[in-house]
Amino acid sequence: MNFHNKIVLVAGGTGGLGREVTRAFLEAGASVVVTYRRAEEFAAVMSAAERTGATPPEGVAADVTDPAAVEKVVADIVAKHGRIDILVNAVGGYAGGTSVWEVDPRIYDQMLQLNLKAGFILARAIVPVMIRQNQGWVVNIASKAALDHAAGGGLYAASKAGALALFDSLAAEVKPYNINVNSVLPSIIDTAANRKAMPGANFSKWPKPEEIARVILFLCSEQARVIHGAAIPVYGKT
Questions:
Q1: Coil/strand/helix, residue 139
Q2: Is 1 inside a domain boundary?
């Protein structure tokens, strides 16, 4: 898949999944802008790009739950590049292991901010740009938990289910335009953080970030124009 001349924004593009999405787009020839919160994570992405000879991504330290911050990020990208072709929202967080009646109410706000509000703020700022272009691709990273509501993860599941509904509605709203909107639903992703949290698990069954990244690139390609308003399961063998 060739993404030369495509401008890609990967929100959360330095996290466990986001950095693999960033790498995959860079290797496919795209110009990539990533948002991040931790400078050391962006530095690691830059170093990895330099080692492979890929063009490094542009980085913006931004809180994507802040509408003003996101509007500035979008305005700056458009001012520099003239367009935004692709949005991948890889911003998210997990909190679980506690029953609904025992969970700290602050977790409610945290899950909604990271897993639902961020996607809303990003879409609200970027979709009008894509409408003016009459072209775009949007992929939101949801979760298997949006459909499979396990015990101990009620707030996480609720936030991801809300995000799935939000982007499904967005897909219906952009049907008059040449914009594709889809969600990807990973199960437990094979990251260092998840291995540390669940050392006794069978890691071989978990989908790897680079595998999920390839699915995302396909969804953002011309070959996948027929896929719209979908929730794509990437569960591995779990």
A1: strand
A2: no
